[in-house]
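---------- Forwarded message ----------

FYI, see the Acyl dehydratase record below. Original note from H. follows.
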Amino acid sequence: MADKELRESPSLSSLYPKALLGSLRKSGGSALPSTEFVREGVVVDPAHLAAYNRVCGFRLDDVLPATYPHILAFPLQMALMTEDDFPFPLLGMVHVANRITQHRQLRLDESFALRVRAEDLRPHEKGKQFDVISELLVNDSPVWTDVSTYLRRGGGSGEKTSRGQLAQPTPTAIWHVPGDIGRRYAEVSGDRNPIHLHPITAKAFGFPAAIAHGMWTKAHALAAFEGRLPEAFTVDVKFKQPVLLPAKAAFTTWSEGDGWAFELWNARKPKPHLEGSVVAL
């Protein structure tokens, strides 16, 4: 695997036009690139961390929420997926799952190396799916790993994937999700996909309203477990129906083995937005 070393975080303002151009000329492929993007000396801006914590519902602290490093990795992920040798256009891909493993607590005053690569292109019932792997390392040892699974629709196997029966939507809490949460999360995450920003731009992509970012729903769910989380754990989610903004959603949690399971439902009808688990390592 060839490393591509970056001195600074890629500019998202230049990557979005590149993503739009890629949507016009890329049609798919049978192989992922072998390039791994690498950035050394990654540090956290305290003001940015505080803004992220406020938007997602975490308390203000010098310990990073497990979902926060995804924000650090996002520009490298975009850079990777907008390269000429990446087979799929970035626009139109669906983020279907995300698994984060935190091997220990990460602190605000630390410096990290960040590595991002794509792997495991495989069939999906609705097309093709693959994983984007992001890692934070300290002294060459991974302390945090993020596996984001993306779906490229079209030409799928047609085979249904089985899943366990979801629990009945008896809420532990009710979320009142404001209509501007997409814009607020975009400010801290850099993810300014138009489907999240405004009803008009979302409708241009086939949605009846703007939708919440999947990683915001994951972060807000994880915030519900603050004070109970072990130092090392895996939080794994599958994204289901989008959260149309504004929204009223029912959040459900229960103990399961060495951790918890959780789900987010449409509060008005039994349609799931998200299902996940937190498991201690």
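H. also flagged this: The helical segments are 12-25, 46-56, 69-81, 181-189, 199-203, 214-223.
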